[in-house]
Amino acid sequence: GAQNPFASSPPTDCFISQDEREFVGINGLQWTTRQEMLNIYKNKIKCEEEGLYSIRTEPQFAIGQRAFLVQTPNGNILWDCISFFDQNTIDSLKQLGGIDAIAISHPHFFGSMSDWSHEFGDVPIYIHE
Q1: Residue 44 bridge partners (DSSP)
Q2: DSSP bridge partners of 125
Q3: What own/partner pairs with CB < 8 Å and gap ≥ 24 does 91-96 have?
Q4: Which contacts (CB < 8 Å, 24+ apart) does range 22-27 have?
Q5: Bigger pLDDT: 11 vs 69
Q6: For residues 112 and 85, is the Cβ–Cβ distance under 8 A?
Q7: Cα–Cα dist 128/122, whole Å
Q8: How far is it, in rounded angstroms, from Cα 55 to Cα 46?
Q9: Which tens digits make up the pLDDT trace of 79-100?
Q10: Topology of 34-127 in CATH?
Q11: Cα–Cα distance between 117 and 120 in angstroms, integer?
Q12: What angle do CA 45, 51, 53 make, to 5 degrees?
């Protein structure tokens, strides 16, 4: 679920998939657009326990990542960013108090972190060293 700059044709390679540990399916790299995804995918937000919500794309996209909204007295943190989100996702998270910061655990979640931040007022993004 990595994003790429706008172009008239799909890229020939993916910087994440260049890692020898990364799985690339038998049909090679697959490309789509956010607009195409809006017609197929939806996000499911599930309360895992008080103050903790999982966010997962259905049907499964990429390697099936999920993100978490962690509600705290000092603000809400989005732990990781799944690639796909739509207006329903934004509205649902705003009803849960919105997002005050984003924390990213590893590169599989880099793809759309800037878009998530922008949608929630350019909240800060924290990436570990």
Answers
A1: 56
A2: 102
A3: 92/43, 92/45, 93/45, 93/55, 93/69, 93/120, 96/45, 96/53, 96/69, 96/71
A4: 23/63
A5: 69
A6: yes
A7: 19
A8: 7
A9: 988 888 899 999 999 999 999 9
A10: Metallo-beta-lactamase; Chain A (3.60.15)
A11: 5
A12: 15
- The pTM score is 0.78
**How is residue 109 annotated by DSSP?**
G
- Name 85's Cβ contacts closer than 8 Å, sequence gap at least 6: 43, 55, 112, 115, 116, 119
Q: What is the pLDDT of residues 1-40, one digit of tens each?
A: 455 555 566 555 555 555 565 666 677 666 777 788 889 9
Q: Say which residue the tokens 């903790």 belong to.
A: 52
Can you read off the two tokens belonging to residue 25? 């399916």
